[in-house]
Threonylcarbamoyl-AMP synthase (Pseudovibrio axinellae), 329 residues
Amino acid sequence: MKLWRLSPSDPQLEEMQIFQDICDALSDGKLVAIPTETVYGLAADATNGKACAGIYEAKGRPSFNPLISHIDSLEAAQTHAFFDDRALKLATEFWPGPLTLVLPKLPTSPVSDLAVAGLETIALRVPRSAVMRALCKRTGLPLAAPSANLSGRISGTTATDVINDLKDHLSYVIDSGATPVGVESTIVSLVSERPTLLRPGGLAREDIEAVLGEPLARAGTDDSAPMAPGMLTSHYAPNSHIRLNADYVTESEALITFGTDLPKGADKAARLVSLSDSMDLTEAAARLFTALRLADLGRNRKIAVMPIPHHGLGEAINDRLARAAAPRE
């Protein structure tokens, strides 16, 4: 594994030899950890079934859970999926950005059946990350890139998180520091008459509904045939068990705080980790996965989490916490 430390705003990134080396590695079916604005992605050639199998193997991810394909532009996306007026509105407004669209897959798209988990739909995103878009453009490939972590565990928002989980499977890690959004992309399905929110994420529901001019339906969990990532009941889980909406804390628990008005017993908590003292949901989303890692006391221990509002990015934060707290097999 080779590490490339890269400034996110470096205008010369495509002129470096290591950039071409990483393009060659992706074209050869290798796995590369790449930062996006949301979380770090475990990237591989989405048109190469063997490369996609490598993603599932490295993460320990069930192969019925589809992968998001990242592309460099709306024009590139239109070679893989059918875009109706709604899809064009959302793509024009929010790409590049933390929005994934699930759309009917075109029969001419070379994206592998394994990447879409055998479905007739495809999940597409144009990320804000300049390096991810540049790699897609230089290689001419859509890059499948789920979060770079072990399946079901806490997503990686730093290169160190990724290396700790996956170093034996990676040819390269691109390190550009902590990801600014901190939760995965919002996923919206446009394959039926009613637009449906499959996963809340780094783009608020309210912003999407304002552009569409109609409310989003909300999909439930699906543990057998999910249409998109992040729909499994148990996901994003630390080793410790999680207790939500905590209004008290015991000495054996870590506490994840939101605001400074702490619950009873906070002074005796085993560990205190703040999401946002100022109760800023954007800051809390960016810190969520790091906070879960810092609060993790290990198996048979507990993390208490203070209540988080459900509006704006709070919907995505509460979604991740609910899945992290779900019963595990």
Summary: The chain has two domains: 2-218, 241-325. The domain at 241-325 is CATH 3.40.50.11030 (Rossmann fold). The chain is about 25% helix and 20% strand.
